[in-house]
Amino acid sequence: MNPFPVILSAPSGVGKTTIARRVLERRADVGYSVSCTTRVPRDGEVDGRDYQFVAHDTFLAARDAGEFAEWAEVHGNCYGTLRSEVRRVLDAGQHVLMDIDVQGARQFHAAFPETVLIFVLPPSGEVLKSRLSSRKSESRERLLVRLRNARAELGEVGRYHYVVVNDDLERAVDQVSAIIDAEGLRHDRVHEVEAQVEALIAQLEQEIHVYSQGD
Ligand code: ADP
Ligand code: 5GP
Q1: pLDDT of residue 128
Q2: Percentages helix, strand, coil for the chain, rounded to the nearest 5?
Q3: Closest by alpha carbon to 165, among 124, 213, 210, 208?
Q4: Cβ(68)–Cβ(81) below 8 Å
Q5: Which numbered ligand comes closest to the C-alpha of 175?
Q6: What is the pLDDT of residues 98-118, one digit of tens each?
Q7: What angle do CA 154, 39, 21 make, to 5 degrees?
């Protein structure tokens, strides 16, 4: 297998984190890149599993030391993908799944063009608002910031290779998983395809030779 990076982007509350968790539960060939953030942890979030939660100064020091493959300020907090995380997962022979925003996805794809970009859409604006508010993770004011930013984020959909609508969760997870399977079979990702085909042609010539002797 030739592992590659996969990015999920979507406005806040669409369900990227939920989809990513399900994909990771299902597939041993996919690993998650744990990002760094200056955001405060939500209830239930675990440092080192969901994010590496760091102070602003620590984030800036890591950024200045070149530790991030990409970073961005999103909804007033800093988020960054650690090069060491991407390497850790790829070195384990797994596709590296990342939940990153539209700015980060653009930077990362420019640096690693083999990256698969998936945009996740909500079924409607109303559903997005109700998912965000039912999560109870944001104050009213912060929720409004996230909803307002969603408008600009949706405008970036054209840069993505795939679009998945997160209406029925299981279907969305199936679709993300199918995209990973199909991408793994792309001609330019399959190692030594030319050698495989040459060997097949040689076998076929042998078969033709033997068969034609029987005439
Ligand atoms: P994001 O990571 O995109 O900000 P989350 O994964 O935190 O979004 O999901 C936001 C909320 O929506 C969560 O409460 C989650 O349980 C819920 N959710 C996610 N996907 C679905 C779905 N397909 N149907 C209903 N609720 C969903
Ligand atoms: P949340 O605070 O809801 O966990 O995430 C807010 C936004 O930050 C989401 O759009 C999420 O995709 C994005 N994000 C999470 N990690 C990273 C990262 O490492 N880099 C970038 N650029 N965005 C990230």
Answers
A1: 96
A2: 50, 20, 30
A3: 124
A4: yes
A5: 1
A6: 999 999 999 999 999 999 999
A7: 65
Which class in CATH covers the domain with range 5-184? alpha beta
78 falls in which pLDDT band (50, 70, 90)?
A: very high
Is 70 exceeded by the pLDDT of residue 41?
A: yes
Q: What's the pLDDT score for residue 1?
A: 76
Ligand 1 atom having least distance to the Cα of 14:
3
- Total residue count of the chain as it appears in this document: 215
Q: Which residues form ligand 1's pocket by a CB distance below 6 Å?
A: 10, 12-18, 131, 134-135, 166, 169
Q: How far apart are CA 181 and CA 176, in angstroms?
A: 9
Tell me if 35 sits within 8 A of 84, measured CB to CB.
Answer: no
Predicted local distance difference test score (pLDDT) of residue 215? 65
pTM here is: 0.95
Instruction: Domain ranges for the chain, please list them.
Output: 5-184
Structure tokens at 215: 């005439």
